[in-house]
Amino acid sequence: MHRAILCIPPNLLPEKSWRILMGDLENHFGDDASLDKKDEKIILDFLVQYSAEKSTKKASFKILKSIGNKDIIAITQTTYWKKKHEDIPKSVFLNKEVKSKANCKACHSDVEKGLIENDKIKNINSFM
Ligand code: HEC
Predict the structure, then answer these.
(1) Ligand 1 neighbour 66 (Cβ under 6 A)
(2) How big is the CA angle at 59 (ends 57 and 64), to the nearest 5 degrees?
(3) What is the helix (H) or strand (E) element at residue 4, kind and residue range?
(4) For the chain, what are the domain ranges?
(5) Tell me: the pLDDT tens digits for 65-76?
(6) Distance of alpha carbon 10 from alpha carbon 108, whole angstroms
(7) Which InterPro entries is this protein grouped with (predicted)?
(8) Whose CA is nearest to atom 29 of ligand 1?
(9) Alpha carbon nearest to ligand 1 atom 33, residue
(10) What are the pLDDT digits (tens) for 11-21?
């Protein structure tokens, strides 16, 4: 399975975004991440079941509000994400341990568990 799908918890994107994303895996952020139809369905069902609409987490609620009805499939394009990360210097995202904005795990240690809580965020001074 593709790392970008794995690294973002289902509750951080709405159902619509997951459907768009899973419907176009051949062009997944420039990579070919296509799967066979059966695996694709299993993953999509999982993502939809735990999508932002189904979550009670504050971050999910804010993301839903930020995305509205837009066809956004990258959380980093939401105003909510941009606002939360606007104070982080560009150089931090270029650090070799971070590499990209989409590498949530570099800073959010527990991201796979869907835990994006302030106390689990690494001190970004170590990336400067
Ligand atoms: C370079 C480190 C870094 C990367 C990479 C990063 N974040 Fe963050 N993120 C932070 C920091 C630091 C904060 C805290 C900002 C604040 O509250 O001042 C934060 C805050 C957040 C919050 C708000 C949490 C809250 O409780 O208010 C969410 C949600 C979040 N990040 C999601 C993500 C996701 C999803 C990704 C990957 C697509 C990501 N972040 C990538 C450093 C990072």
Answers:
(1) no
(2) 100
(3) helix 3-7
(4) 3-127
(5) 999 989 988 889
(6) 15
(7) Dihaem_cytochrome-c
(8) 59
(9) 104
(10) 999 999 999 88
